[in-house]
Amino acid sequence: MLGINRKLEEIERNGDIIRVGLVGAGQMGRGMISQIESMAGMRVVITADIQIGNVTNAYVKSGVQADDVIETNNVKEAAAAVKEGKVVATTDAQLVTSLPEVDVVVDATGVPDIGAKIAWDAILNRKHIVMLNVEADVTVGVILKKMADASGVVYTGSAGDEPGAIMELFDFADALGFEVVALGKGKNNPLNLNANPDTAAEEAARKGASPKMLASFQDGTKTMVEMTAVANATGFLPDKPGMHGFVSDVKGLPEIFKLKEDGGEISNKGIVEYINGIAPGVFAIIASEKEEVNHELKYLSMGDGPNYVLYRPYHLTSLETPISIARAYIYNEATIAPWHGLQAETVTVAKIDLAAGDFLDSIGGFTVYGHILTAQDARAKGALPLGLVDKNVRLKRDIKKGEIIGYDDVEQTKDSTIWRLRRMQDDTFKAETEKETTVKA
């Protein structure tokens, strides 16, 4: 099997390219466009954003001539532009997912409901879909993957996102036969469950980031969502609700991830976790029962065992997304997907005292944050998945700060794609579980 770089060069030598359609020209999307313009064998031929100027500027900054950027919502004009070697800027996301001249669709919107609709439409149009939208994936990724499999296309998360980077370490260690004790990521900032766009505004301005996005990192929601994606891909579970959030440097990880009876700090193996002190890296804790393997690991300065750490000190977010695009198109492989089904859930917790009649806002907002539970615990509590929260969800009763919000606590004032997909996913899971129970009986 050729390396992806050589395979892309071969595609280009043969006069072809992988034609990418992108939805979302924010920070992630803009970086991806520029990165792909530097690559062989691939191009973002059409991009959609509600602000069409964002798209045009992204293309021009990537090196595309302004005259070669065609602004249109017309399918015939878009198709003609792509065939002529130009690129298309549009405000119509469905044009991206339906255009025959697109091979792979990338969702970089960051909005769960929009991401779910983009993925749904891409799969119905038999296009590979790469999700830079982990919030949508952990909510309805199981049913989207099932649909993609049935349609003969790839549903995948993105290389460069922390779950994808963790998955690379897991696949490497698992393929070699190591016992994988734990998988995890670093957290950039101390956990602040009270963070909101107002409290994050000053730091966001310094960093040129969205206050809402920064708040979702500070309140732990993004970390919970990312490790939920890893759990659904690997079958690993949080050691406790919300995970531990240990403080450590890389050298200290092998000792932390010993079982408590062996002097460590965890109760189970095969867990997902986050660490304060090693950001922006990701890690896998591995072990082996083989004497010769341990001898060689010590010789290679990997530590004294019994645990060893594989650590990747970077993840390049959307700049690595082209790797997932290429893997999907060339090899029909996903970087990360919910292969184990719904193993964990990021559930909705009240950030402040809320009253009956209040509308919830969204991830990184003022009203709620995310908390990881096992899927079994989430079902038992009737907990509302965080990805279903938006401005159309209204509380039916008073909720205290820190309380998990359940399905029975809310009502929808307007239906949405992600709610419909989640109902489909839950019904499918229930039917499959009942079938397995009947077969075993």
Word description of this protein:
This protein has 16 helices and 17 strands. The protein folds into 3 domains: 169 residues, Rossmann fold (3-Layer(aba) Sandwich); 153 residues, no CATH class; 73 residues, Type Iii Antifreeze Protein Isoform Hplc 12 (Alpha-Beta Complex), CATH 3.90.1210. With 441 residues, the chain is an alpha/beta fold. Helix 8 packs parallel to helix 11. A 7-stranded parallel sheet has the order 3-4-2-1-5-6-7, sandwiched between helices. Helix 7 links the parallel strand 6 and strand 7.
Feature tags:
7-stranded parallel beta sheet; alpha/beta; 6-stranded mixed beta sheet; Asp/hSer_DH_NAD-bd; 3 domains; DRL_cat; 441 residues; Homoserine dehydrogenase-like protein; single chain; Type Iii Antifreeze Protein Isoform Hplc 12; Rossmann fold; 17 strands
The CATH superfamily title of the largest domain: NAD(P)-binding Rossmann-like Domain
The CATH level-2 architecture of the largest domain is identified as 3-Layer(aba) Sandwich
Structural class: alpha/beta
Ranges with pLDDT <50 over ≥5 residues?
none
CATH class of the largest domain: Alpha Beta
Could you say which overall geometry the principal axes of the C-alpha atoms support?
globular
Number of helices: 16
How many separate domains make up the residues? Answer: 3
- Strand fraction: 15-25%
- Strand order, main sheet: write it out: 3-4-2-1-5-6-7
Rg measurement, Å: 22 Å
Number of strands: 17
Task: Output mean pLDDT.
Answer: 96
The amount of helix comes to: 25-40%
Biggest sheet features:
7 strands, parallel
N-end to C-end Cα span: 45 Å
CATH topology of the largest domain: Rossmann fold
